[in-house]
Amino acid sequence: MRKIIVLLPVFCCMIMMGQDKVKLTKGSVPLHNVFEPDSISKMQSGIYNITPSYPVPAGIDPLIKHRANMEREKLQGNPYPAMGHKRAALAPLLVSGFAGAVNVGTPNDNNLAVNNDSFVVSVLNTNIRIYNTNGLFKKNWSLEFFPTDAKNTKPGNGVGLLDRSYDPKVLFDPVSNRFILVYLEGSESTDTRIIVCYSKTSNPLDGWNVYQLNGNPYGGLFWTDYPMIAINGEDLFITVNILKDNTDWRDGFTQSVIWQMPKSRGFNGDTLQYNLWSNITYKGKSIWNICPVQDAYQPGSEGLCFLSVRPGDASNDTVFLHNISKNHSSGNAQYSHKVLKTNKKYGLPPVAPQKQAGFRLQTNDARVLGAFYVNNKIQYVQTSNNTVNGRSSVYHGIIQDPGKALPTVTGNIISYDSLDIAYPTIVHAGNAVYGKQSLITFSHSGETIFPGTSIVYHDNNGEYSDLLMAKKGEGIINSFIPDTAERWGDYTCIQRRYNNANEFWLVGSYGKNTNVVGTWISKLNMNDPTVGVNNPVNPVRETLAYPNPVSEVLNIPFAISGDGDVAVEIRDATGRLVFTLTENQVKGQQTALINITEFNTGIYFYTIVFNQKIIQNGSFSKQ
Length: 623
Fold this sequence. Notes:
- The protein is mainly beta.
- It folds into two domains: 3-26 and 90-529, Methylamine Dehydrogenase, Chain H; 31-73 and 535-622, Immunoglobulin-like, CATH 2.60.40.3080.
- Helix content is 3%, strand content 50%.
- It is built from two helices and 41 strands.
- The strands form nine sheets. The chain has a ten-stranded mixed beta sheet, with no helix packed on it. Strands 3-17-16-15-14 form a five-stranded antiparallel beta sheet.
- The radius of gyration is 24 Å and the shape is globular.
- The protein starts with a strand and ends with a strand.
């Protein structure tokens, strides 16, 4: 049972040709240390002057090697190992998980957002559900009745009656500390709308400002399908596909458009203003499906990039890199695109088998489903075929220097001989020093395993971890249509917690033992020590401790200017002080190494005090 990751040499080609006239409509509405692995459990806690060495792993130290070997030992017998690599990346750690809504009668289109105040907004066809980060359920709305909630405001003419709502997407905006929710209403020209909702505060229970956009802005017999959303510092971007009446996404596509609008007006309950970009074509043919490229850290200050491919082709190597140059407020935003070629072709994925013979799952097409930008690279993912084993697989692409005239594009195919995987999403999992890491989540199914949700980690050296199953299936999915090719759901989601560099949240589907589709929400921590390396301007409340969870030695890197006295205090979940470490005349880059082998299992909180001032605090869990 072999995992196939096809790694290929760099190759690039860009076609520079005249592009058709785009129509713009404006409107309003990790660290080294000196300890040998065999002596870890006997180590004396202390503060050590350990200077980071960048980049690891050329001189990877014994402790990191020991951790890697321990993880590999745990994975012995794993039926889905990484193959073809000298050394696999470390898989992430599952911290917790809980069940979300059960969906019967509609495809399970899962999306999720988590904010800095411990609220989780989980959306799917056809519900919006609020939890806290401990999995405590708070509130549920149906998409149809959400605008009528007593706390929700409907500016202008309000939002008319909703009776067929679907395709929800949600994100957290760390700039405004608010949520944005977008979903669709109707699937015919007489009633097609984009519902756009802005939370009034960081608490999604405090009410939302709810708007509607015309899903048929140019008239005729057309309707809007499949939104994708992203933000920069000022604007919200919504991309959608325009389809003909009485058709679906497979045979009714006419064009994809981009809505661009200032976020502040939605948060304030003002009339929305927008740019609407349409007639996005190449050689006279509309470009199908446009995926926004989100900045990895804070939202970027100006403009946004987007990606498209040829999603319906059996085999293709074309990638369209779109750009909107400026924000709406400039009054001078411009659209452009480049036509790139990848070194590895993608293609239309096959349907996926289920454990019960005769039952299969739809994989739709090869559109780009997630992307981010960091360190002058765009990483993106799409479902694809694998011509080697005939399986539905994940295509992981990397675009180097997207701002240059000739960006390079390389592609890797993540595939398994005994699994079909589909609907990937990607999130940046690194930091300002190590910038290439990413987490990729996707749905899985096979002849010997029920449908579920999995994750792989892509490290700073371009290596992939073994597959980690966030949720294993309990039964087949057979709840939406009588055909044997069941609707699987059109997307998953993974998001980082903005105020904790080592915390990630994902949501995906799984088959329940009642043969309906379920939703599972998971919290992850990274197991790669390099991810914990950071030098934030304001480190207070930043959990930099690693590994997390930890079983033997906790590493807490910190930096101080000048010299003085340092104290490290650790308290348990009740607030009881369980550990104190002090050191005099400390200066420069340091690491507190704490032997916690005698600690009880549970959650702990640490504080680092320098010259009687808190310079860092955070939490970790003992496993």
